[in-house]
Design a protein that fits this description.
40% of the residues lie in helices and 8% in strands. With 487 residues, the chain is mostly helical.
Length: 487
């Protein structure tokens, strides 16, 4: 059998029930990568086929104890800031291995590109592989290491940055540091971005197209606090926001609640810059709304208040109820595939928007606030509001709904325009991505404390520097010498 890039995930594979069948099959055609087209086929697997939304959302301040609902370890343990007790779909451990499997595919593709007799013909594939490798490592270091802090990154433990296909069964790795991981992510990002060629893709939104690659750069540099670069890459990623923002107050408003996800996740939706298919049950019958620990009426009042902060007016997001007390913003959908044509079991799949126009806008607005560029930041947020407020024509926000410096200074509570902008960006971003797990990234970056309260009044607090902000390294990774996070 070809030992093809199993990496750290090999220990996990040994525990899977389908291990024998898995090992009896040739995993894919990566040992026969004799053309750019075949490398492109392999790169379709170079994106994490795992979903982070379930645990990221439950850990955040978007979750409350509803007293009843679907009980799963990933939802309950995450809400109580405990290590999740299983490795099934949607868990941190499943995500860890999903990322390293994606990295394995990217590294195999890079080897094929570098060893090809005509490497010039593989430039587009090399660019995609470098971006995919950088993205998977970035997501790993974000969840499993301390958030980037320039004063401590050189000593904070990172995650293994894997640069080549594995040729042994269980290879030993070291975590090195967060600074090192960020250095390698940036190297891959900057080397790969100029090579990206949208014409090489049949459906660009399923790959790191140029817009998605630049959007990734805005997120990376926002975490790294290099705000001028955030603005630079945002301007390249999205030259025209009005034509690309989701039409929540127009097109989406005329759809049935169950029809919204079909449009929300389309590859032809301009707001979607990168879509990734994940093995997940998160949207099975709107399960993300049916979890016991999730958005209830009190959280909804904070995240989606009846009057939009500062501007006033009503949010155009489409919300519905699933059962009793379960609130869903209808945007994610579930697909099911049987394991084989004759089986009665299978897997759930959820397409996730990994990068969107809306995130780029918020990243740029936050960076603009930090650099004192208040006018363009306010203009971007006003453009955003014109596509979100009920009974407003996109691009024509009424004067009584328009954000101004005076309004933002009042909103800050400190008479600071900058503080008001930052506060409002985070609040609008929280509303935009509720139930998608994105709030967790801002909680990490801004060291926002999270307090979860049970129905019996018991409180669980995640303080700013609590070690539980770092997800635990899977125990099975110990076989490869990867040390776990302290608790």
């Amino acid at each position: 059998m070809n030992k093809v890039a199993l990496y750290v995930a090999f220990a996990f594979m040994l525990t899977a029930t389908s291990c024998k069948k898995y090992l009896e099959k040739e995993p894919d055609n990566r040992a026969k990568l004799t053309s750019p087209e075949k490398v492109s086929q392999l790169l379709g697997t170079a994106y994490p086929s795992a979903n982070y939304m379930a645990f990221a959302e439950a850990m955040s301040d978007n979750a409350n104890d509803k007293g009843a609902g679907v009980i799963k370890n990933v939802n309950e343990d995450s809400y109580f800031f405990r290590d999740v007790r299983d490795n099934a779909q949607d868990t941190p451990e499943f995500y860890w291995f999903g990322c390293y499997e994606a990295i394995a595919a990217a590294n195999q593709a890079l080897q094929a590109c570098n060893q090809a007799p005509d490497p010039e013909n593989y430039k587009a594939q090399k660019g995609e592989a470098l971006l995919a490798r950088a993205y998977a490592h970035f997501m790993l270091v974000t969840f499993f290491s301390k958030v980037y802090d320039p004063s401590t990154a050189a000593t904070d433990p990172g995650i293994p940055y894997v640069l080549e296909p594995e040729t042994v069964v269980i290879k030993q790795y070291e975590r090195k540091t967060v600074a090192y991981v960020y250095e390698m992510i940036e190297k891959d990002l900057l080397e790969g971005l100029p090579l990206i060629d949208d014409k090489s893709y049949t459906v660009p939104r399923y790959h790191f197209n140029r817009a998605a690659a630049n959007a990734f750069a805005t997120r990376f540099y926002l975490f790294k606090k290099e705000y001028s670069k955030v603005i630079q890459y945002a301007n390249t990623a999205v030259p025209n926001y009005l034509a690309s923002l989701r039409p929540w107050n127009t097109t989406y408003a005329n759809l049935g609640l169950n029809d919204v996800p079909q449009v929300y996740l389309k590859s032809s939706e301009p707001a979607n810059l990168l879509l990734i298919g994940t093995t997940s049950w998160y949207a099975n019958g709107y399960e993300y709304a049916r979890y016991r620990y999730g958005m209830d009426a009190s959280v909804q009042a904070q995240v989606l208040p009846t009057s939009v902060p500062v501007s006033g007016g009503t949010w155009g997001f489409r919300t519905g109820t699933v059962g009793t007390g379960n609130i869903a913003v209808t945007k994610l959908s579930q697909h099911f595939a049987y394991e084989s044509p004759t089986s009665n079991f299978g897997r759930g799949y959820v397409m996730i928007p990994a990068f969107t126009v809306e995130e780029v806008l918020f990243n740029k607005a936050e960076a603009s606030a930090y650099t004192g560029q208040f006018t363009p930041a306010i203009a971007d947020l006003n453009m955003y509001l014109s596509t979100r407020l009920v009974s407003v024509t996109p691009g024509a926000l009424p004067a009584n709904r328009t954000l101004t410096e005076d309004k933002l200074a009042t909103y800050s509570g400190t008479n600071s325009i900058r503080d008001g902008l930052l506060k409002l960006v985070l609040n609008y971003k929280r509303a935009e991505f509720v139930q998608e797990g994105m709030r967790w990234f801002d909680i990490l970056r801004h060291n926002i404390p999270v307090v979860h309260t049970t129905k019996t009044g018991e409180t669980h607090t995640l303080a700013a520097n609590d070690p539980r902000r770092l997800l635990q390294i899977p125990q099975s990774a110990l076989l490869s010498g990867v040390a776990q996070n302290p608790r």
